[in-house]
């Protein structure tokens, strides 16, 4: 069996050892040999030509036979056409008619389903035949043959065949390709294109390398579409585009012309061409010089995919093909045919037919797996899972996991389990046991399912036991991350307790045990451990599970741990732990008791009123800065007790406050002046009390103290007449900054005068504005209509008969009366008052309008 080599893929076919098998570039095509009936045919005969239809294949042989094959190569029909080589087979687009020509000059055109057609014997070999693409339709019964002449045959209305010569005189015609209305053919000189519609020849593309024998290196023609012809001859490729000529340029010229959009040379001889999207598939015949011998030898043919450019090309892929008897073949022995519908490419040689096709997603995944690119293979399978047929996403994933494990990348392998294993519990458990076998349970632990899908509890317990042996921190992390229902909580608690017997002070194990107790709702035990560890979560535990009854005798411990949090918790839950109970527990720790009572007082000045007397001593002992604010804000502390404590500790400011609070302001002022010697504070105190006798005492005490006099001059100007102080200053006494103080007094006086004048102006302006507003309001008219009523008799204010005389009184307060309904004038003659407003003790409204008629 022969081999088909593809430089970067090895499947059923043998690969070329000279190719670089480890190339990282993925091949574009895959190959398989056309077998079944073809194998038997080529064992006895040799292929000379083949034509491809989307539904079947037509193979011609050197012994003059034509075989119709299905796509797998099975023979469906056989025709004995001649005893010599079949040169060409042509099919129309429908696949219902076939044209055949042979080396002995025979030409046959007939229907596959009817034998009626054209049969002719020529006196020269006929190299090519081509049917009109629409030959099935009655008005397109046309075909051309190529020998020494290009002949067109048409069936006329009499059902007879009419022949006409399209071209002759330039040697043998070796290739014809018919597309739509355009016929392209090649002879010894070049390539021509004929428009069957306009019956005009529109171009002549000359052969580049005339040194090559046209019969040994025949021209390859291929239509990419209805207007693009690809020409390959020798080592030259040209891409020709048929375009419509502008009507103004036509004159005697054909209506179409050809533009060569790309022309370039190749490294090897061209045996066939086929389009692939915007690229080209080229079949090369390769001749190489041997290093040992001067003569040339034939190498294997190559199938390349190239990207044409205007003057060159870019190689996309290149595959050497090991076909049968390739050493004996010439360039003319190879042909390349293609099926446009499925992008299939057939490489025909005398003893072998190879099919090349574009690689699908399964092939792409095969290549990735072969190159051990499992990540990319898995991604490709996931993206195209609906299109792949030979692969399974999960199996690819499992192969990837196995690969990672073999590499020793256990963490990545475990991470992939989450994605690959999905909800397959059996696979999960198998992987867990495999990781256990290789000693890598820790790697897979964090990726185990823990949601709706759960494994057996024994699996989770096995992993926890593994962590307990070697990694306490990892064990603690898992117990926090895993829901408690994943495993038997009591069994794990017992195991942790056993470990604590060997290491009773291990903080990590104790914390974990407390968390396990909490999940098991044994909160008392958890609380004991948290308090023992002074753990920050103790307060959250108490709040969350309402453990206040359990901490009554542990208040001191909580306070020692964190005073602020403890006090906030106790005050937030006074309904569960009373103030009296807390005070009782803290009785032996006055510094903690002070913190608690101080915060209680800050929240509510009245709640702990019965402890205010006790708080005086606590503030004096532990928090003097807050003693004075406490004395100011508290209305329940005994002043005598507070005064006694402050005097004992010589707290002057607090004593001054208490004396003033108790009414002994003169003694308080005396203490400020004698003990504090602070004139500003004394003045401030006198201002607060606003007592003339205190000002007198302050002046009397300060009169012989120049610094005090300066302070008084600077500050009493708005409370006491400065003249009284100035008159009492002894002559000749030196007073610091006297001039500045006098200037300040005068400045303050002027400022007071200016303020009074300004206020007077504002008052006058406001009074005038309000007077004008009142005048406008009182002089405004008042609407009186039939909807208004008398406020006394409640009848309509206007009579039903407006012709009769009537009199109405309307007050500024908008109350209306019939004049006869009003009582007589009051004490002021001629002035009437609104009865309603007078009854409400408002300022009376004066009658402003008397309507008479």
Automatic annotation (TrEMBL):
A Pfam family assignment: Beta-prop_Vps41
Gene it is expressed from: vps41
Classification of source organism: Eukaryota, Metazoa, Chordata, Craniata, Vertebrata
Subcellular locations according to the entry: Cytoplasm, Cytosol; Early endosome membrane; Endosome membrane; Late endosome membrane
Function of the molecule: Plays a role in vesicle-mediated protein trafficking to lysosomal compartments including the endocytic membrane transport pathways.
Molecular functions (GO terms): zinc ion binding
Annotated Acidic residues bias: 13-25
CHCR repeats: 567-711
Coiled coil: none
Stretches with biased composition (Basic and acidic residues): 1-12
Main location: cytoplasm
Annotated protein name in UniProt: Vacuolar protein sorting-associated protein 41 homolog
Top-level taxon in the UniProt lineage: Eukaryota
KW Heme (keyword) present: no
PANTHER family named among the record's database cross-references: VACUOLAR PROTEIN SORTING VPS41 (PTHR12616), VACUOLAR PROTEIN SORTING-ASSOCIATED PROTEIN 41 HOMOLOG (PTHR12616:SF1)
Family affiliation: Belongs to the VPS41 family.
Originating species: Gymnodraco acuticeps (Antarctic dragonfish)
Keywords carried by this UniProt record: Autophagy, Cytoplasm, Cytoplasmic vesicle, Endosome, Golgi apparatus, Lysosome, Membrane, Metal-binding, Protein transport, Transport, Zinc, Zinc-finger
